Structure formats: C-alpha cells, structure tokens
C-alpha cells in the first residue's frame, strides 16, 4: 500500500503532468491478461493504445527483440544494420510501396509524410503548391506541425502559431476545393481513431482519391492506429481500394517498441537525398526486429480471425441495453453508450477489464491474437457495466 502511494507521489512530483492516470500500477502481463501491484488480474482491451499487437510480453516477440539486443541494440544510421533493411523490404513487398523512412512515433511518421509531400510538389509545381488538406475531427500527432494537421481546434488553442499551410475539411468538401493547384497533398485516416472511431464513408474516400489523382495531388493515409492488422487487413486503406502515395504508420508496428514508418510510393520514392531528413533512433535494430516479428505473423488466417472477432463484438454490443451504436472495423471498435464513456471505463476497470475512450465512446483495441474465451469474458463484464 505505501509502495503504491510512493509510486503515485513520485510520479506526480517528477513526471510532467500531461497524463491523468488511473490509480493502478501495471507490473506484468501475459498476452491479453495483465496484473497490477496487488496481483489483481485484468483483461486488456486497450493494448497500450493499439501498440502491443500480440499482447504483453508475448514470447515470440520477446525472443526476437531479446535476440537482437544480444547482438547489437543500436548503431546509428551511419552503418548498415540488417533488421532495418529487412523490415523496409517486407513493408514494400506487402504494400507495393517503394521505399521506407523510419522514425520513432506516429507524429514523426506524419512529419515525414508532410515533408515528403511539400518537397516533392515544390520541386514539381513550385513553392505555392504546399497546402496539406486534412479531415475535420482527425488526429495526426502532437508536434506543432502534426497539431496543425489535426482537424480539432481544441488541440490548437495553447500553441499558436502552428505551422501554416494546413486546411481541414469535411470529407465531402475536399473534391470541391478551389485552387487544387495549390494543394500538395491530402492526408486522411480511413477510420478516425482519436476522433471517436469514425469511419469515413467509402464513397467519400473514393471521391477524395479521384480528386487527388485528377489534380496530381499526393494521397497520404495515416495508418498509425488503423495499421498493422488492426482492422482485419494489413492497412485499412486496403479495404477501400485506395492507392496512396504515402502511408504513415507506428503504434502496433513494432509490438511495443517505439517505431514509426513512412512508406513512400512511386511518385515520392526518390524525394529524399542524403541529409534531407533523418532520425537518430529511426530504424533502430531492436525496434525493427520487433516489427519483423509482428509483421511476419500478420497473415490471412490472423486477419480472418480479427475480422470474425470484430464482427462478433459488433453484433454482441449492438443488442446491449444502453448501447446507441457500434462503429469500427476489425479489432478497432467504438461503442456509443447512454452513460458517459468514462464511467463505463472506470467500472470495467474495477471489474477487471481495461478499455479506452475516444471522444464520447468506449473504445476497444484488443491484441490481434486475443483468445475467444478472454474476449467473451471481457465482453460480458463490459456489457454488465454498460447496462448497470
Ligand atoms: C496515435 C496517433 C498518432 C500519433 O502517434 P504518436 O506515436 O503518439 O506520435 C498519429 N495519428 C494517428 C491516427 C494516431 O492514432
């Protein structure tokens, strides 16, 4: 008990106060089950916000990372290291993209996407072609530039002036925008995660894609949350027949290590030359070894299971008293409830289930390999919390 007080006090004294934490310390886990400092068991439906793709301390992932740690944990980008090149090849082979830039987070992956679009279009069309169009209600990160890309005003207020040259629109407004010759790229999430698990209608996505193609604008898809198998395909754009020029991803890519990746398509594959962009940790061997392990397990069988489990969750919560609607795809689920989402998350935690909120919804992002029995056990508990 005093141990717990000590940790809470120490954290509140010394860690910058940006996070409102639950009064729980997680000390260890096994897959989709984690334990707090008192030994209490929780079923984890949050995966560290879509990060631990195969759960906590997964043995296959751990073996890959620990093996790499015993060989070389970091060397900088001054030298070749195998995991970095192998992972880049893997990502390109599975997406048809041509080259990869590695960083450490989703925000950085988006920064790189924006830099690539700006540089490419400035070279081809001149410096006036620099506007990046994003969607209202989007989330793209916390750096000053990715905040500017984020289409939610409340994130902007404290940090003016943000990077200029961003415009956020409703999906149906984009194809009607005037002066397309000034637009360098359109950056979208197919399913907005932080925005409340909001799926952009497929027809609207199609019209945005047509607009970018017709006007020689780069189509950029933010797959930071939706990527790496989360929605039942490797990347969510693959559900909608999109052919993005740039794809950014992070979160679940390395299964729990910080890794961002910006995938560059044919049009932008050669946009960066020596010294044009960089990252000290980007492409770090341990993170890349973790990602190779994660990606090599995201196959058709797993995607089928993710889809089935997602469909089951949707049907299950669709009939629960107190649920207004269920949104999302695969194991990325938003549940709109009568009761405030925060209350449900707290009640679920008391009863041994960890889940998240997104705007006013309860958000579920379980590990891709969560077992049916744990999923059903957690769903029953959550149902009880929603109905109560
Ligand atoms: C989480 C998230 C980001 C930011 O990722 P960080 O790793 O926190 O920088 C960007 N875009 C989307 C869609 C996200 O969900």
Q: What fraction, in percent, of the residue positions are helical? A: 25-40%
Strand order of the largest sheet: 4-12-11-10-7-5-6
The name of the CATH topology of the largest domain is: Aspartate Aminotransferase, domain 2
> Which ions and ligands are bound to the chains?
pyridoxal-5'-phosphate
Q: Output the CATH homologous superfamily of the largest domain.
A: Type I PLP-dependent aspartate aminotransferase-like (Major domain)
Largest sheet composition: 7 strands, mixed
The CATH architecture of the largest domain would be 3-Layer(aba) Sandwich
Strand-pairing-aware structural class? alpha/beta
Instruction: Determine and state the CATH class of the largest domain.
Output: Alpha Beta
User: How many structural domains does the protein architecture include?
Assistant: 2
- SS field, number of helical segments: 11
Topology summary:
Elements: H1 2-14, E1 26-30, E2 33-36, E3 41-44, H2 47-50, H3 59-69, H4 82-95, E4 99-103, H5 106-125, E5 131-135, H6 144-149, E6 166-169, E7 183-188, E8 191-192, E9 198-199, H7 202-214, E10 218-222, E11 246-249, E12 260-264, H8 285-297, H9 300-318, E13 323-329, E14 332-337, H10 341-350, E15 353-354, E16 356-358, E17 361-364, H11 372-387
Parallel strand pairs: 3-15, 5-6, 5-7, 7-10, 10-11
Antiparallel strand pairs: 1-2, 2-3, 4-12, 8-9, 11-12, 13-14, 14-17, 16-17
Helix pairs in contact: 3-8, 4-8, 9-11, 10-11
Pyridoxal-5'-phosphate is lined by residues 105-107, 110, 139-141, 189, 193-194, 222, 224-225, 250-251.
């Amino acid at each position: 008990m005093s141990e717990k007080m000590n940790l809470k006090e120490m954290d509140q004294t010394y860690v910058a106060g940006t996070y409102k934490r639950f009064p729980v310390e997680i000390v260890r886990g096994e897959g989709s089950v984690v334990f707090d400092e008192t030994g209490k068991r929780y079923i984890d439906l949050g995966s560290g916000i879509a990060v631990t793709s195969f759960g906590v301390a997964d043995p296959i992932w751990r073996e890959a990372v620990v093996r790499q740690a015993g060989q070389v944990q970091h060397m900088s980008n001054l030298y070749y290291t195998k995991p970095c090149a192998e992972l880049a090849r893997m990502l390109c082979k599975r997406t048809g993209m041509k080259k990869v830039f590695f960083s450490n987070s989703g925000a950085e992956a988006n920064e790189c996407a924006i830099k690539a679009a700006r540089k490419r279009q400035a070279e081809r069309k001149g410096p006036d072609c620099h506007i990046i169009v994003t969607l209202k209600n989007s989330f793209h990160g916390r750096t000053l530039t990715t905040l500017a890309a984020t289409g939610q005003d409340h994130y902007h207020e404290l940090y003016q002036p943000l990077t200029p040259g961003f415009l956020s629109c409703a999906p149906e407004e984009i194809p009607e925008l005037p002066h397309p010759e000034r637009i360098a790229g359109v950056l979208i999430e197919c399913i907005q995660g932080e925005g409340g698990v909001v799926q952009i209608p497929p027809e609207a996505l199609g019209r945005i894609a047509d607009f970018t193609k017709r006007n020689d604008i780069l189509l950029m898809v933010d797959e930071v949350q939706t990527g790496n198998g989360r929605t039942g395909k490797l990347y969510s754009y693959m559900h909608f027949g999109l052919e993005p020029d740039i794809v950014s991803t992070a979160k679940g890519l390395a299964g729990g290590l910080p890794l961002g990746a910006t995938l560059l398509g044919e049009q932008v594959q050669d946009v960066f030359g020596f010294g044009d962009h960089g990252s000290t940790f980007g492409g770090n061997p341990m993170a890349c070894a973790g990602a190779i392990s994660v990606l090599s397990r995201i196959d058709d069988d797993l995607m089928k299971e993710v889809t089935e489990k997602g469909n089951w969750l949707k049907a299950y919560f669709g009939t629960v008293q107190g649920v207004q609607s269920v949104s999302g795809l695969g194991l990325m689920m938003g549940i709109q409830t009568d009761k405030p989402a925060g209350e449900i998350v707290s009640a679920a935690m008391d009863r041994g289930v960890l889940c998240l909120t997104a705007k006013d919804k309860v958000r579920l992002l379980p590990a891709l390999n969560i077992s049916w029995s744990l999923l059903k056990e957690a769903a029953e508990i959550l149902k009880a919390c929603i109905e109560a």
